[in-house]
Amino acid sequence: MMAILITYPQAKIAEKWQQRLATIAPVIYYPLRKLTFCPLSPAQQHELQRADYVVLTSAFAAKSLVAHYAELVQTTTLVVLSDKIAQLVAGCGQRILVAPEPHQQALIDYLKLLRQPQEQVVALVGNLTKLTVQEGWTLIPLYRNQWTAADVACAQAKLAQLPISRALVTSPSNFNRFWQIYQQTTIPKFVALGETTAKVVRQNGLTVQVPAPQPQLLNAALAILAAPEFAAN
Fold first, then answer.
1. Which CATH number is 210's domain given?
2. Do 94 and 191 belong together in one domain?
3. pTM to 2 decimals?
4. Are residues 58 and 81 in the same domain?
5. 209 closest CA partner among 190, 232, 229
6. Which domain holds residue 175?
7. Are residues 135 and 205 in the same domain?
8. Pairing state of beta strands 137-146 and 34-37?
9. Could you identify which of 30, 53, 184, 199 might form a hypothetical disulfide with 121, taking C-beta atoms 3.0 to 4.6 angstroms apart as the criterion?
10. Among candidates 218, 147, 159, which has minimal Cα distance to 188?
11. pLDDT tens string for the chain (233 positions)?
């Protein structure tokens, strides 16, 4: 029997999708990551406070900002990747702007149109970010995406149960960690949650489908994963 892998917490997958996918094959929900908040140094806090724009591209960074440093950005414009992140930081900052499409290049291009040359941008990121440094930008790590030897052993035990026929990978690190430990001969059919992740999948000589940028990106990816024609391709 084949299984479906989703590298995203089960609790964040709508019940209708859980039920639909379960009718196709056993589903393994395994995020393949551990995110840990990293306190900012006094110098980093000062840089955050004086920024004209603060960029947020992940939900964990948004939650960490609200929990620990909301008072530092009360007069700052927050530029976020998606409506979901905007909801997480509601009431934080002077105003919140959402990228026209939920991918990093769209956010970068959008901010180029807004930003004056003298204005400073701080992006709050993880240690494995794929965000590239732009002129006038400072990248400050606000969390760590960790994966220890013990985590590898647990994942190997969990994923050794069944061959994977379909897999939704939600970040480059998710894919890399899965592919390094996957021992089955069956090559999964991949869906990636964005072009940044898809690029890493393709670099390994594998094919992958990506939903078009849209507000309900996760639902679109799950729809591809569940489609009968996806398994047939």
1. 3.40.50.10090
2. no
3. 0.83
4. yes
5. 190
6. 3-33+147-232
7. no
8. antiparallel
9. 53
10. 159
11. 789 999 999 999 999 999 999 999 999 999 999 999 999 999 999 999 999 999 999 999 999 999 999 999 999 999 999 998 999 999 999 999 999 988 888 999 999 999 999 999 999 999 999 888 888 999 999 999 999 999 999 999 988 777 999 999 999 999 999 999 998 888 999 999 988 899 999 999 999 999 988 878 899 999 999 998 776 55
